[in-house]
Amino acid sequence: MSGAMIFIEEDLKINDTQVEVLAGILNICALVGSLIAGRTSDYIGRRYTIILASIIFLLGSVLMGYGPNYGILMTGRCVAGIGVGFALMIAPVYNAEISDATHRGFLSSLPELCIAIGVLLGYVSNYFFAKLTLKLGWRMMLGVAAIPSLFLAFAMFKMPESPRWLVLQGRLAEAKRVLLLVCNSEQEVETRLRDIKIAAGIDANCKEDVVKLPRNSNGEGVWKELLLRPSPTVRWILLAAVGIHFFEHATGVGAIVLYSPRIFKKAGVTSREKLLLATVGVGITKAAFVVVAMSLLDRVGRRRLLLVSAGGIIVALTTLGSCLTIAEHAKERVLWALVLSIVATYAFVAFFSMGMAPITWVYSSEIFPLKLRSQGMGIGVAVNRLMNAVVVMTFLSISHAITIGGAFFMFAGIAVLALVFFYFSLPETKGKSLEEIEMLFTRKNSKAMNRGTEIQPNNV
């Protein structure tokens, strides 16, 4: 959409407000999709929810690629948004539930790597599709997304179901068969299966292949436990998940990724070809530093990477805001401000991609108790999409009101709040099993973390 919007404005003769709505409506619809997906995945399973997400997104991509007018283009964007909401909620949950503790950070961050690769491929395809006619070029940019959607739908039929979801259905023998596929030894299978059974409220020594569980194992009563009468532990977990999703987009990544051509244009890059090439650099940076994050998550830990990421984002946004302000008020093009604006943009993407981007999804998918995980994650993703929509749908208006440089100073201030929140609210989860992590969010461990000491395994 980043590159396509340049041509949609010209072809469909739409104004800035319509551009903002077109850009942001996907996230509003993704919010709805993520809330529906939590309950859906409790009923039909994690695997079939991913297949459903693929089919919904495929339909949206076809509609956008057809797009004879603004109304149908918006409809396609909305349908695709629902698919995005489903996928963003379920992919990290699925990966977290089939992974072991030592590799969970790497595996749960794979969706973020694929998003980064998708963004890069989107920028690259925009560059080549821009050479087509005006009416065909932007439609190809949007419609081509149907191809990976179709591939994913078929590929998921070959993947195993989440063993934790199978245990919640009482299908213990099937869960064990899946664990045999993803574990390194029979002993690891027995240990993980025992922990999952305890988390699901099943006797750890139960040897039956199928057991009948209470009705609320499929998600009934979860909203009450999450929102109406949460325990202190669940309340802290929910605050951590909502907070990390809120700050991921409140710091302005949507503005950087979606409006990067406008940012570079404000800095002084004028030709369309150079604008699209500059955005390709954003995609390359994002993909490269997500790979860096994946290699560090299970060694350095979530918390340290997140704090480094937030600190780097603050510096990058402050630099970008300063350079854009200078470029905007200068009577002629200031070359050093132009160059430093592009460098600061890439630096923001680098720090964001090596910390906040993957860790948001890894962390929120692993901290919820088993029975609350899918719908708790749904709430987190809903907040994520809401903030993305707010940023994307208001960025042009804010930049008109307080200048584009002022908008990035505002994002830098929010990033400072994010750094404070991460430091005081998020304990380290590296190396802990999903069943152990809940115990990190207790008052005793809260005091240890706030004193700046590492939470020790014997506290769990």
Description:
The protein is an all-alpha fold and 460 residues long. The chain folds into 2 domains: 4-159 and 230-446, MFS general substrate transporter like domains (Growth Hormone, Chain: A), CATH 1.20.1250.20; 163-204. It contains 21 helices and no strands. It has helices at residues 4-12, 16-44, 46-66, 70-98, 104-108, 110-129, 134-143, 146-155, 163-168, 172-182, 186-199, 222-228, 232-250, 253-258, 260-267, 272-300, 302-329, 335-367, 373-425, 434-437, 443-450. Helix 2 (16-44) packs parallel to helix 4 and helix 6 (110-129) packs antiparallel against helix 7 (134-143). Residues 450-460 have low confidence and may be disordered.
Short description:
By secondary structure, this protein is mainly alpha-helical. It is built from 21 helices and no strands.
Assembly category: single chain
The CATH architecture of the largest domain? Up-down Bundle
End-to-end Cα distance, whole Å, is 46 Å
Low-confidence stretches: 450-460
Main sheet? none
- Write the CATH homologous superfamily of the largest domain: MFS general substrate transporter like domains
Order of helices and strands: HHHHHHHHHHHHHHHHHHHHH
Q: What is the overall silhouette?
A: globular
Mean pLDDT: 84
Number of strands: 0
